[in-house]
Design goal:
It is built from seven helices and twelve strands. A nine-stranded mixed β-sheet has the order 6-5-4-7-8-9-10-11-12, with helices on one face. A three-stranded mixed β-sheet has the order 1-3-2. It is elongated. The relative contact order is 0.08.
Length: about 250
Amino acid sequence: MQSLEDSTREPEGPKPRSANTLFILLAVLILLIVGFLFVNSNFFTIGSVVIEGNKYVTTEDIYSIAGISAPINIFRLNTTNIKERLMHDLRVAEVNVKRNFPSTIVIEIKERQPLAYIASGYGFVEVDKQGIILAAFKNLKQVNVPMITGVRLENQYVGDSVENGTIQAVLNYLARLDERSLNQISEVNIYAPDQIVAYTTHSAQIRLGNSQHVDQKAKLTNEILQEMVVKKMQVEYIDLNYASPIIKFKQ
């Protein structure tokens, strides 16, 4: 005989959905956390970093300055942080960092290009066309830009700007030379503010005179040096102190 208690008991229905939903949400959350930790781990390399525009700053230096370490994981790299780090390096004039989805970060570098070396109290300094000192060296192992001689910088360090007007004029002259002509200049000597002489790698003199009209003198230098190469001219000196350049050939 069925008791009253049994007759009033409600039949068992399906289990509430809330328990199943909670379980699913918890499982998804765990998967997301595991996936995030895995992607941001050092277990494997994800993507690549492409560096463009660097000539003087090595790729290794850029990685070091930007805080990029191997194995590369682009999900852990902050593009804003990379840009800020690189802009602190004096050799870098401009930086653009962008993500090319799905798996590449591109770092575009515009360098401050070294234009000349100048003797200093420390040894030698490397300057760009604005006269900013990019680096200092006790000795020069390799000279890949012209040397400005006849002057010496004292008490100026990396990051300082050279204020000497004659040096600035020489830098302006060198900056206006095309690459082929610049590669032919080994030295610019400042005997006096009105006696500036450049020397080519073949020991020809280019007598610039004073620091005026350096743009026109640079234009003439480009033209004459190019002609010297094409015609294989043996020149002792070029005098640009006159309206028409004077060229003396070697005997």
